[in-house]
TrEMBL record:
This is Glucose-methanol-choline oxidoreductase N-terminal domain-containing protein. Belongs to the GMC oxidoreductase family. PROSITE patterns: GMC_OXRED_1. Residues 89-112 form the Glucose-methanol-choline oxidoreductase N-terminal domain. Pfam families: GMC_oxred_C (PF05199), GMC_oxred_N (PF00732). Keywords: FAD, Flavoprotein. Gene3D superfamilies: FAD/NAD(P)-binding domain, Glucose Oxidase, domain 3. The keyword Transmembrane helix does not apply. InterPro entries: FAD/NAD-bd_sf, GMC_OxRdtase, GMC_OxRdtase_N, GMC_OxRtase_C.
Length: 624
């Protein structure tokens, strides 16, 4: 539809952002035929695009303006002043359209932290029904089951009729999928349990967001929007960049949203909102939109030339991301890795034809090999309690105002819990050149001869916190992104211990005999890291500083907390100082959670839809 057609209607709910969360809300709110819903999305509708649909072509989407915002951070002191490219979906479906398709689960304590911090109704038991609501679990065939070892999955904990399809790939199988779980078991890892049980320790193949019937990506546009697109009470306008929420001060002193101003085809338009405006722009766009609208810290807004409507300096703060450190090691020639496709256009073309014609081959198979390790598993010799507490209290003394919510003691306690993961390990069948961190699409393109794997050492709950703020009132100008990687000493410490730990994993079969060794029997490290295999914690810290990137899981910039503890929204997702503006997306996560976050974004959006409908009483274990 045109902008004129869109604005001729007035909507009960105007949703800013047709991404992962926004399309869940649009589908659920428009279930009521008496409610009208309008969605504004900056990207295009690319349903049916084979680059999105193919589960393992996501790198082809990054840094292309028709799919990706292609954000950049400011130089990061903790990573040798490198700039980091942040791929974020600029397309209908948001980042669920361009992510790795990896599917994790927050731990019980991850979500109980939210409730402990003052968000009644957002604990593990409250969100469990919503995880089941959004998904359909597709069990593998007996043949695949024997290869990938899916015994840890408990079908009784999984959803059976939700929109998002999750599965293991039947159309392609890679050697590391068989080698990884056995290697972890031989290294002494516990037998994994279904992460839905509340804990996810061990090494296993995790599920992916792929529909096994069509072998296509299962994402918000395909599974929440497309089945409902013909509802007369749902309108979606794509390629529409939101400029600001139109606010007026009510008699109570609270700001009331009356509509949303947006730009399409070079012209500015305004659409009316009768009930609410819901911001689902994601971790970068949501705080940007609030600040452009006059909701934010007075200092930030005045510098950017924006009139202050609601003064809340918490907007854009509390940015928290997962870091991923790449340990890149050589693999023997007989074990194929993605370098084969990257270096040989003919083979890549054959693989593409195999996908398009037969839905077969490597482009059907998204990454699955992952593991979660507790601090006790990572470093059994460490006197963990005194070490962690010393680093946390030292940082808090130096930065007394950094943690008004009291997150650090909660996270420190969680680190010491033997059932909680201190880190995630992701094995990727391709080498990564981390020096290219500024351009996300080039990370896995390199000239090092031979085959390589990258063992990614990823944080689960970083202590470092940064910010995202506007510098201009111009909505086309990107905000300043500062994730502050490794600004908290505990993050670098944990990364270095995790590096030393994964190096011990490479000594266990069946992985060990597949890796190349040099004349001294050491692993062959990729040539872009010239200092060899780290032998000490200090050397591992050097590797971490030089070889860390984002895991593309930023959260927290419109955090759900009591306002005095740093909050932007309350436990009903309502923005403080407004009567009818909410934020629903990963920006409201008050603390980080382990693993890939798309599953939690779906669950949070499902619950938020019920909150908006008045169907759930917060604090009553997800009953509705």
């Amino acid at each position: 539809m045109s902008a004129q057609e869109f604005t001729q209607k007035a909507y009960d709910y105007v949703i800013i952002g047709g991404g992962t969360a926004g399309l869940v809300l649009a589908a659920r709110l428009s279930e009521d035929p008496n409610v009208t819903v309008g969605v504004l999305e900056a990207g295009a509708n690319r349903l049916g695009d084979p680059l999105i649909d193919a589960p393992n072509l996501f790198l082809q989407l990054w840094d292309k303006p028709e799919y990706d915002w292609s954000y950049k951070t400011i130089p990061q002191k903790g990573t040798l002043d490198r700039v980091h490219g942040w791929a974020r979906g600029k397309v209908l479906g948001g980042s669920s359209a361009i992510n790795y398709n990896m599917f994790s689960m927050a731990s019980r304590q991850d979500l109980d932290n939210w409730a402990e911090l003052g968000n009644r109704g957002w604990g593990f038991n409250d969100l469990a029904p919503y995880y089941r609501k959004f998904e359909t679990y597709n069990p593998p065939s007996k043949i695949l089951s024997s290869k990938i070892n899916d015994k840890y999955v408990d079908p009784l904990l999984r959803g059976t009729n939700g929109p998002i399809q999750i599965s293991f790939c039947e159309a392609d199988f890679q050697w590391q999928q068989e080698a990884w779980p056995e290697t972890c078991m031989n290294a002494g890892y516990p037998m994994p349990k279904d992460p839905r049980s509340g804990s996810a320790l061990g090494g296993f193949n995790q599920l992916t967001t792929v529909d096994p019937k069509t072998l296509t990506r299962s994402y918000a546009a395909r599974n929440y929007y497309e089945p409902n697109k013909d509802r007369p009470n749902l309108s979606v306008l794509t390629e529409a960049l939101v400029a600001k929420i139109v606010l007026e001060k009510g008699s109570t002193g609270e700001a009331k949203a009356t509509g949303v101003q947006f730009i399409k085809d070079g012209a500015t338009h305004t659409v009316s909102a009768n009930k609410e405006v819901i911001v689902s722009g994601g971790v970068v766009n949501s705080p940007q939109i609030l600040e452009l609208s006059g909701i934010g810290g007075a200092d930030v807004l005045q510098k950017a030339g924006v009139e202050v409507v609601v003064d809340n300096a918490n907007v854009g703060e509390n940015l928290n991301d997962h870091s991923a450190t790449g340990v890149v090691v050589g693999v023997k020639d007989e074990y194929p890795t993605a370098e084969v496709l990257l270096r040989n256009p003919e083979i890549a073309q054959q693989a593409m034809e195999g996908y398009l014609t037969h839905k077969a081959g490597p482009f059907t198979n998204a990454p699955t090999t992952t593991g979660f390790a507790s601090l006790k598993m990572v470093d059994p010799e460490l006197d963990a309690e005194s070490h962690i507490n010393a680093l946390v209290s030292e940082y808090q003394k130096a930065h007394p105002d950094a943690d008004p919510a009291g997150r650090a003691p909660l996270l420190a306690k969680q680190l010491l819990d033997p059932n909680e993961a201190a880190g995630q390990i992701v094995l990727l069948g391709v080498g990564a050149d981390i020096e290219k961190s500024h351009t996300a699409s080039e990370l896995f393109i390199h000239q090092a001869p031979g085959n390589w794997i990258t063992i990614g050492v990823c944080s689960t709950r970083s202590f470092s916190r940064g910010s995202i703020h506007i510098e201009s009132s111009d909505p086309t100008k990107y905000p300043v992104i500062d994730p502050a990687y490794f600004s908290h000493p505990l993050d670098l410490d944990l990364a270095s211990r995790s590096i030393m730990h994964v190096l011990t994993l490479t000594k266990y079969e069946p992985l060990a005999s597949k890796l190349r060794k040099d004349e001294n029997g050491d692993l062959v490290m990729a040539p872009f890291w010239t200092k060899g295999v780290p032998k000490t914690l200090e050397e591992a810290k050097e590797l971490a500083s030089a070889n860390t990137v984002t895991e593309y899981h930023p959260v927290g910039t419109c955090t759900m907390l009591p306002k005095e503890k740093g909050g932007v929204v309350d436990s009903e997702c309502k923005v403080y100082g407004t009567s009818n503006v909410r934020v629903v997306d990963a920006s409201i996560f008050p603390t980080h959670v382990q693993g890939n976050i798309v599953s939690l974004v779906y669950a949070v959006a499902e619950k938020a839809a019920d909150v908006i409908k008045g169907k759930t009483a917060n604090g009553v274990n997800g009953t509705h």
